[in-house]
Amino acid sequence: MTFAGRRERLMEMLGEDAAAVFVGASELRRNGDVDYDFRQDSTLHYLTGFDEPSAVCVLRPGGDSPYTLFVRPRDAEQELWAGPRAGVAGAVEVFGADAAHPIEELEDRLPGLLEDAGTLYYSLRPAEGLAGRVQEALLDALAGRRAAAVRGGRPLDRVLDPDALVSGLRLRKEPGEVEALRRAVDITGHGIARAMRVARAGMHEYEVQSELEAEYRRRGSPRTAFPSIVASGANACTLHYVANRARIGEGDLLLVDTGAEVDYYAADVTRTFPAGGHFSVPQRLVYELVLAAQRAAIAAVAPGVPFHDVHEEAVRTLAAGLRDLGLVEEQPEPGAEGEAVRRYYPHSTSHWLGLDVHDAGPYRVGEESVVLEPGMVLTVEPGLYLRPDDEGVPPAYRGIGVRIEDDVLVTETGHEVLSSAIPSDLDDIERIVAGG
């Protein structure tokens, strides 16, 4: 489906009596006169494909211009320094807007675009930068509507958050989105393979990270989907470890949690492998248990299955295996496995994947788990983290952290593991690492 098709579907859901306002990302100052690398807001990109800073999209299904963009105008001097802009004309000709205006005219034109709308859809956010400007403009427009209502004009009936509607669209991936995810996963696999081949004791974690991410760039990914985790030894027991500064020790496992981004779509894959080429016996036992839990969880992915059942499959396998390793005293009662393993496995097994690495979409509707449908993409990522300071863990297992993560597409008949080409079998991993 094209960007226009997405807007049409959303406007059908909004209804002709509504208006919706979406704010793009702004350039953000990092330090001095240096900005962070710009990336467009995922929802604005999803609806428009417009990837320049300081843009606002207004959808008004019942208006003369159902799709209006406010953008930075062409500016020869600025374009000399920072590159060409689409400008107002490009917003119409290239990005399909029914009307477009300079962003400087937002405050003057927004009240007219909202005129006679009964419902305003807008997602509140911290009032800074462009979002602050938009919220001030909306408040002024609403004040004008209240004043007009006193004289017989139509008041605004309600203000709603559009996120639930947009998330419902983003949750089920179109074929083009799946293709972008495939490419992102493929590039991620090449990066992880490179990391496995080069990692050795004595290197720093950031050296492995540089090899991994250089492979992404060589293969066409402009950025990582999130900061790469390259955690050696006990650092792997810190779930979101991103320092990546330690020196890899003899006998260390290396946990690499990473993802390339392609056309704004994120991969998210984790592999854990021995930097020295071979798992020790305790490392192998822990790894085999996590792999078994992951395979059980992936096997559960199919249309009609509640999202949280995937997690329950993982924790049941982990609970039984931890008992065999002596880390859980006895088999927990059915339904209590999650609490029993929480000490060593404190996070969920899955999250949605797409334009954001933790993508849009609910996990529950009321008290009920969302049911999996074809087109949904989720991660499956069980792990075990046996902290080095946990005296309840036998010494041979302390400091071992293992996570294995794959990206899974729900299909009409079951599932497809998009990252299946990235080795996770122990023997395959040892062969790649030892082979260099």
**Radius of gyration using CA atoms only:** 25 Å
Mean pLDDT: 94
- Specify the overall morphology: globular
Look at the helices and sheets and give the structural class. Answer: alpha+beta
Largest sheet: 6 strands, mixed
**Number of DSSP helices?**
13
Helical percentage: 25-40%
Unreliable parts: none
| SS elements, strand count | 21
- Strands in their spatial order, largest beta sheet: 6-5-4-1-7-8
Strand content: 15-25%
Terminal residue distance: 43 Å
Description:
Helices cover 37% and strands 18% of the residues. It is built from 13 helices and 21 strands. The strands form seven sheets. A six-stranded mixed β-sheet has the order 6-5-4-1-7-8, with helices on both faces. It has a three-stranded antiparallel β-sheet with strand order 9-12-13. Helix 5 packs across helix 6 (129-150) and helix 8 crosses helix 13 (426-435). The mean pLDDT is 94.
